[in-house]
Amino acid sequence: MPGHSNRARTRLSTSDARLMRRQRLRLALVSTVVLAVIWSLLSVFVYVLLAQATNRAIDARLHLFADQAMEFGEPGRLVSEPGKLIAPEQNRLFAIWRVGTMTPTLLLGSVPTAELLAKLRTLALGINVSQVPVMIQTAHSRYDVLQMTIVNHGVLERIQVLDDVSPEYQLLAQLAGLFFLAGILGIGCTIAGAYFLGSWTLRPIMAARVREQELIADVSHELRTPLSVLQANFEMLLRHTDDDASLHKALRWLTPIYAETKRMRRLVEELLDMAHLDAQAGTLSLQPVDLTELCREIAALYEPVLEDTDVRFIAAIEQDITVLGDPSRLRQLLLILLDNARKYTDRGTLSLGLERRGQHYDLTVADTGRGMEPSLLARVTERFVRGETARTRSSEEDAVQVESADPGNGAPAVERPSTGLGLAIAKRIVDGMHGKLLITSTVGQGTQVTVRLLRHGHGKLR
């Protein structure tokens, strides 16, 4: 099973890379728009809630101040200097006006500035309703004013209570600014993060695209050689058709043509098999399978195959072992593993083992062949990854008759050179049966492939 470095894997083409970059930009823009909308709605919602709560608190304070200010609304309590701060109670701003003349007369008040007093005088003169809330803006402050009109002992008075709401509105303005800055910062971070993390989001698509490109490149590479051989041999055949003698001699070119045709057919069949397994990933039809009987059947097939070779076949199969699996795929799996082991073992032993291991069973195929380099071992279950063969059995004269690895064909077939798809198919079969494929190898000592399968009646491999 072993040894040469395979050609480098392909990468995304320039056009595909540009397409992925554009897709990352689209993801970044979509993420930004979604975040901006969500953040805007959330900010407006929070701001409105806080503003409403603040206004309710201000209104409650104003009405409380109004009730307290009513106690000072007796006639005759005039201030000697209008505009002067009078504070019978700390932190309570109010003004009581006598109206009915051209100019309202201040009876009592606790107004901090002449500017505010002038605005309140204008308010007392111009509004003639029983109760009205008004906002007054001065140079440095903002006040909510509640004005009430009452008749006190036959005298028309207007009571104004004020609340300095500058701190609350400054806080709301700061909150709005904070929401705005946080939104801008969040949008910037989203654009950058979505763009750079877009590669992580698109990783499965990029990986699928790379695998597609790899498959096209690998299949093209694999078909190039047999097609070249076919073309060369057909050309030689056509050049020797002038007479019967030349035609008879040219018939020898048919043998490589036939061999390469079979090789291409096997390649296509294995590619179709892999596509079928990929489509059925994780959905193989699992049922109880007598693995002991299946291993004995395959062992009986391989014993005569290796009889006249320098390779000794050993089978150590435990009794009464039943696993959850697909019978046809298990048969195909065994043939792939044994075929691989035989190809890369010139002399020594090839063994097939089956034994209980706690909650699972281990199916082992081991050989004393050439082994694999660590670099090849790490990639050996990829498509078209294979080592140099010790011997090539490409011609019919050197062919060994073994059962076909095609689960749908029970007739014997001629073994052909490896296509590099065997272990890739084996890996997919094992994954489809929820098992594990373990491969260990040492250069010059051999390779061991262990398939760990579920026991019948156990739903999870540990």
Please explain how this structure is put together.
The protein is about 50% helix and about 20% strand. The radius of gyration is 46 Å and the shape is elongated. A hairpin with a 3-residue loop joins strand 13 and strand 14. Helix 1 packs antiparallel against helix 3 (about 165-200), helix 6 runs parallel beside helix 10 (about 420-430) and helix 7 packs parallel to helix 8. The chain has three domains: about 5-200, no CATH class; about 205-280, Signal transduction histidine kinase, dimerisation/phosphotransfer (DHp) domain (Helix Hairpins, Orthogonal Bundle), CATH 1.10.287; about 280-460, Heat Shock Protein 90 (2-Layer Sandwich), CATH 3.30.565. It has ten helices and 14 strands. The longest helix has about 55 residues, at about 15-70. With about 450 residues, it is of the alpha+beta class.
Distinct helical segment count: 10
Strand runs, count: 14
Rough shape? elongated
Mean pLDDT: 76
Beta strand %: 15-25%
Structural class: alpha+beta
* Major β-sheet profile: 5 strands, antiparallel
How many domain units?
Answer: 3
Helix content: 40-55%
One letter per element, helices H and strands E, the order comes to: HEEHEEEHHHHEHEEHEEHEEHEE
List segments where confidence is low: pLDDT < 50 over at least 5 consecutive residues: 1-10, 73-90, 389-416
Q: Radius of gyration over alpha carbons?
A: 46 Å
Q: Termini separation (Å)? A: 28 Å
| Spatial order of the strands forming the largest sheet | 2-1-5-4-3
